[in-house]
């Protein structure tokens, strides 16, 4: 036998140490049964959904403030047929835009961009500074990953304003696909 090598002697059959461990962990806190939460969207169907970055214009500071990134959705009520715009921030799920999509809303390109639109509307979402939900007139801007996505938003917006949703297919765009398309466009410019 060489130095440093030792032969181990066993008196009986080889024992598996891991198989012997019988540990039982009990939770420190017992959780209540799963609670069903309501979003307020149960009576509505999603007729449009697309990832966007949303901004609101802050009048006192005269600048655009980011409200969050997430899916802007057009929801149609199953009974009344009314359509509303709802946007939740994707990580916190806070409501960032919540207003009816009325015929008097005017969608305008933002600062000459081909991938952003603005409009002014009364809104019922959570105020970012106070956290209070109350009706407030807001100027919103929605910026999309590319011009194609922005045009799909504009087309859906105009159709929904007119109430023409019969032939509208739900548009869902994967966030990763939108980001990849935007990166490719930027690479081509460089």
UniProtKB/TrEMBL annotation:
Q: Which GO terms describe its cellular component?
A: cytoplasm; nuclear pore
Record's compositionally biased regions (Acidic residues): 1-21
- GO biological process assignments: nucleocytoplasmic transport
Q: Which GO terms describe its molecular function?
A: GTPase activator activity
- Provide this UniProt record's keywords sorted from A to Z: Acetylation, GTPase activation, Phosphoprotein
Region of interest called Disordered, as start-end residue ranges on this chain: 1-24
Q: Does the keyword Acetylation apply?
A: yes
Q: Which family does it belong to?
A: Belongs to the RANBP1 family.
Q: According to its UniProt entry, what is the function of this protein?
A: Plays a role in RAN-dependent nucleocytoplasmic transport. Alleviates the TNPO1-dependent inhibition of RAN GTPase activity and mediates the dissociation of RAN from proteins involved in transport into the nucleus. Induces a conformation change in the complex formed by XPO1 and RAN that triggers the release of the nuclear export signal of cargo proteins. Promotes the disassembly of the complex formed by RAN and importin beta. Promotes dissociation of RAN from a complex with KPNA2 and CSE1L. Required for normal mitotic spindle assembly and normal progress through mitosis via its effect on RAN.
Designated name of the protein:
Ran-specific GTPase-activating protein
């Amino acid at each position: 036998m060489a130095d440093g090598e030792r032969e181990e002697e066993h008196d009986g059959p080889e024992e598996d140490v891991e198989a012997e461990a019988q540990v039982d962990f009990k939770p420190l806190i017992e959780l209540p049964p799963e609670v069903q939460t309501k979003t307020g969207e149960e009576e509505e169907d999603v007729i449009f959904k697309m990832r966007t970055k949303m901004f609101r214009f802050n009048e006192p500071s005269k600048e655009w403030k980011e409200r969050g990134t997430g899916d802007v959705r057009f929801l149609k009520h199953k009974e009344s047929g009314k359509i509303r715009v709802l946007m939740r921030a994707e990580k916190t799920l806070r409501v960032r835009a919540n207003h009816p999509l009325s015929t008097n809303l005017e969608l305008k390109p933002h600062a000459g961009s081909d991938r952003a639109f603005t409009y002014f509307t009364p809104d019922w979402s959570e105020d970012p500074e106070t956290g209070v939900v109350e009706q407030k007139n807001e100027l919103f801007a929605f910026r999309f990953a590319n011009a194609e996505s922005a045009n799909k938003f504009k087309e859906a917006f105009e159709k929904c304003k007119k109430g023409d949703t019969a032939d509208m297919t739900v548009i869902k765009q994967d966030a990763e696909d939108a980001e990849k398309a935007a990166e490719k466009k930027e690479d081509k410019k460089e």
